[in-house]
UniProtKB/TrEMBL annotation:
The keyword Hydrolase applies. Keywords: Hydrolase, Protease, Thiol protease. It comes from Ceraceosorus guamensis. GO terms for biological process: proteolysis. Residues 155-421 form the Calpain catalytic domain. Residues 373-383 have a biased composition (Basic and acidic residues). This is Cysteine proteinase. One of its GO terms (molecular function) is calcium-dependent cysteine-type endopeptidase activity. Residues 372-393 are annotated as: Disordered. Pfam families: Peptidase_C2. The active site is at C164, H347, N367. Belongs to the peptidase C2 family. PalB/RIM13 subfamily. InterPro entries: Calpain_III, Calpain_III_sf, MIT_dom_sf, PalB/RIM13, Papain-like_cys_pep_sf, Peptidase_C2_calpain_cat. Signal peptide: none annotated.
Length: 821
């Protein structure tokens, strides 16, 4: 099957190239997109990791060609990758292609053994302030690339660069290589010898393969390194001298220096802002990252965590580093049983060994610091993230030291864990982009409409064991500029729910596994699959904050075959409108006189369609109770409603989100969006999906919008004559909208009222609001045009003994005079 798909994709790609050469750009674009779709299908379900990786890279190449020819097409109606949904192959390829830009530099996909050709080394990274103070200069350093023998973890040392997480990751990986015979720590650096170890480059140029932004990418560099005046590397380095205090030039092993150089080039330079070792090690090796909070972190289970980690450690399936928080202040013991503070704040350590003997659990830790760290001219040390004077503990801090498991749990803030991806036989992936929310967007915490939602189908063989896990790894892509490189202030979570009927979710359910919102680059969610023959799950990516667009890669790892697809929208046609309940427009529900002022929309279902299926979502702040009503009307603003007026409803008021699904006949309707009480203000987003393409949704202007407004107040009293108001029209013609509303009467309720307009000269009735009614919003005379002259407004009530006040809002398109008569 893989061979067939590959042949089909290659055929389309070749056809696209031929069309492009003959300047048939429409045909070229179509063929390139088809080739990309097949390649991405192969990338998700290829028979081996190598096949899947080659397919991903090929998809990226053909989509780059599609992007080149897209502006040259004559037929703009052809399929455009920018218009495709997030899960289509073409859009995923486009996401990967766009994600090649990181902090202003492009990093091409690693598309062949040895990496892409004809790439020039990237510009040299700027020095950190500590390096500048010590007179760093770029030069070809003393030392060798691979050394006489493989490095152990403690052979790799940090210098003055504040990248303890990177060096700890290299140390932990190097120790794993020594114990298990792997090449994880150094395998990213090319060229390599016949044994797969980095070797010298005759041109002085190297390529570093890193896992970045959804795929493996190439970082081309030269062999120049930041150095002291004597040629000693002023950066991470390997050390194989017996006496670190007196190293010889030939004892420096430089593959750690070059890998560090490439990674920090991606991260903006040697003035590194910090990371965690799991994220760094993922970039170097592709092993699945996980952060385990220790101590008082919610959900931490000391016993289960040890069992899970030590079991994998014994098989070589895990690499561990650890990080301290503020106030580490831990102590351990030397062989002489002398207590020394060997931990420092906000620092990462490599874990070299886990040991359990006679019920005693211990962890062997290593500080990346070198005992010969850089000093400035005044003898002060440049430390990682802290400034402290030199002490007799510096040499001890650079050597491995044992801590009990209990002490690790108490003194460290987190463990950074990387898992062997081959633990899971199957994996699928999807790449997508979340658009920025913008500062004016409401907090849509209760709504899931805008969140990417994917369906994960798991095929389990008969007799599958209960308790098998699926791991979901959500990785944020580095941003295209230095300012949004890591998405500061951007919190993302991944939620898992059992799938119901292949439909998208619009509100959070209580029966799912709710992920934790984190502001890091990686989020791992693990859940257990019941012992059934198959399973289907809805995966929801939720984002809070985010001032910029951000792309992500979601990978699912499991022991059974899986497919990952985007859940379709309910209907193909969509309209979105923002709005707000503000001041007067926050009218409350239909029992209030201010209901008429709520935001209202004209909904027109064209006569060309007998019925239209619609899905309406009203999203607002999670503390606002909201409801949406579709009312039978002529599409005009309405002031009151009863149950028989309602064509469709979102149901009871609900906080933050109202969802309305209905099939409506052709015709004109009024859509009313309301909060429960008047004065409840806030922004909202209205979204309507429809089965018909020409459905119309437009906001109805507020009553009297754009007109002059006068408010006349009066009262009905038993002892006085009926009130009336004199209306003077001085223009040849004037348009009016007039509303009469009464105040509540505590003893007998609201009176039934009527409003009439009479010609003052003839006594003839010009217009009336209709029969007496007791609507809470009063009565209305709408769209009335009067010629020049004098008129009387006659507010009336039905029945006797009424004593209450009223007011009349008079809206006109020209200045008028309205006074009590």
């Amino acid at each position: 099957m893989s061979s067939t798909w590959s042949d089909q994709a290659a055929s389309y790609s070749t056809a696209g190239a031929k069309s492009e050469l003959s300047r048939d750009y429409d045909g070229a674009f179509t063929n390139y997109v088809r080739a990309a779709e097949i390649y991405m299908r192969l990338a998700r379900s290829g028979e081996s990791a190598d096949v899947r990786e080659r397919a991903r890279n090929a998809a990226g190449r053909v989509m780059q060609r599609a992007e080149k020819v897209r502006p040259l097409r004559r037929d703009k109606g052809l399929l455009d990758p920018g218009e495709l949904c997030a899960s289509t192959a073409a859009q995923q390829s486009r996401t990967l292609s766009a994600s090649a830009l990181i902090a202003g530099l492009r990093y091409e996909q690693w598309d062949r053994p040895g990496g892409p050709s004809n790439l020039k080394p990237l510009p040299l990274s700027p020095f950190s302030p500590a390096q500048q103070a010590l007179g760093a200069q770029y030069r070809s350093s003393n030392g060798t690339i691979k050394g006489k023998e493989p490095l152990r973890g403690e052979d790799i040392r940090q210098d003055v660069v504040t990248d303890c997480s990177v060096v700890a990751a290299l140390e932990a990986a190097a120790e794993h290589d020594m114990v298990w015979g792997t090449k994880l720590a150094s395998s990213a650096l090319f060229p390599q010898d016949a044994n797969g170890r980095p070797c010298e480059s005759p041109t002085g140029e190297h390529k570093v393969r890193l896992h970045l932004n959804g795929t493996t990418r190439c970082v081309p560099i030269n062999d120049e390194l930041p150095c002291y005046a004597d040629g000693t590397p002023m950066c991470a380095r390997g050390q194989q001298s017996a006496d670190e205090a007196s190293p010889s030039a030939s004892s420096f092993v430089l593959w750690p220096s070059l890998i560090e150089k490439a990674y920090l080039r991606v991260m903006g330079g040697y003035d590194f802002r910090g990371s965690n070792s799991a994220a760094d090690l993922y970039a170097l090796t592709g092993w699945i990252p996980e952060q385990v909070g220790l101590g008082s972190h919610a959900g931490f289970q000391r016993e289960k965590t040890w069992e899970r980690l030590s079991g994998a450690w014994k098989k070589g399936d895990v690499i561990i580093t650890a990080g301290t928080g503020a106030g580490a202040n831990a102590v351990s013991s030397t062989d002489a049983n002398e207590s020394l503070d060997l931990l420092v704040d906000s620092h990462d350590y490599a874990v070299l060994q886990l040991s359990e003997k006679d019920g005693s659990r211990s962890v062997l830790c290593l500080n990346p610091w070198s005992s010969q760290r850089g000093r400035d001219q005044e003898g002060r040390l440049h430390l990682d993230s802290v400034q402290s004077p030199a002490t007799s503990n510096d040499a001890l801090r650079s050597k491995p030291f044992w801590m009990s498991w209990d002490e690790v749990c108490e003194r460290f803030d987190a463990l950074y864990v990387n898992w062997n991806p081959s633990l899971m036989k199957h994996s699928v992936e999807a790449h997508f982009t979340l658009r920025k929310q913008g500062t004016a967007a409401p907090d849509l915490g209760e709504s899931m409409r805008q969140n990417p939602q994917l369906k994960l189908d798991i095929s389990k063989s008969d007799g599958a064991c209960e308790g098998e896990e699926v791991w979901l790894h959500l990785a944020r892509h580095f941003g295209p500029t230095k300012e949004n490189l890591t998405g500061s202030g951007d919190y993302v979570a991944l939620h898992v729910f059992e799938n119901a009927g292949n439909k998208r979710m619009y509100r959070q359910r209580v029966d799912g596994k709710m992920g934790t919102y984190i502001d890091g680059m990686h989020n791992l969610v693990r859940f257990t699959v019941p012992a059934s023959t198959s399973g289907s799950y809805t995966l929801v990516v939720s984002r809070h904050g985010g001032a910029d667009d951000a792309s992500f890669t979601l990978r699912a790892h499991g022991t059974h075959e899986m497919t990952l697809s985007e859940l379709p929208r309910a209907h193909p046609h969509e309209i979105s409108l923002p709005g707000a309940w503000k001041a007067r427009s926050a009218g409350g529900n239909s029992t209030f006189a201010t209901f008429v002022h709520n935001p209202q929309f004209r909904l027109i279902v064209p006569s060309t369609s007998s019925n239209a299926d619609i899905l309406l979502t009203l999203e607002a702040s999670k503390d606002l109770p909201v409801q949406a009503l579709v009312l039978w009307s002529s599409g005009r603003r309405i002031s009151h409603c009863i149950s028989s007026d309602v064509a469709a409803s979102s149901g009871d008021f609900s906080y933050g989100l109202a969802v309305l699904q209905a099939s409506v006949q052709a015709g004109n309707y009024t859509l009313v969006l309301q909060t429960f009480e008047p004065g409840q203000e806030g922004s909202f987003m209205l979204n309507v999906q429809s089965s018909v393409p020409d459905l119309v949704l437009e906001q109805i202007p507020p009553e009297g919008a754009g007109m002059y407004t006068r408010c006349c107040r009066g009262s009905w009293n038993v002892s006085s004559s009926p009130p009336k108001f004199k209306l003077e029209v001085k223009q040849p013609s004037c348009k009016f909208v007039v509303r009469l509303q009464s105040r509540e009467v505590s003893s007998s309720g609201r009176p039934a009222v009527q409003l009439s307009i009479m010609d003052a000269a003839t006594g003839r009735q010009v217009e009336t609001s209709g029969p007496f009614v007791d609507h809470v919003c009063g009565v209305l005379i709408d769209d009335l045009r009067l010629s020049q002259g004098e008129y009387f407004l006659l507010p009336r009530h039905h029945g006797g003994g009424i004593q209450t006040g009223f007011f009349i809002d008079v809206h006109s398109d020209a200045p008028i005079v309205c006074t009590p008569a």
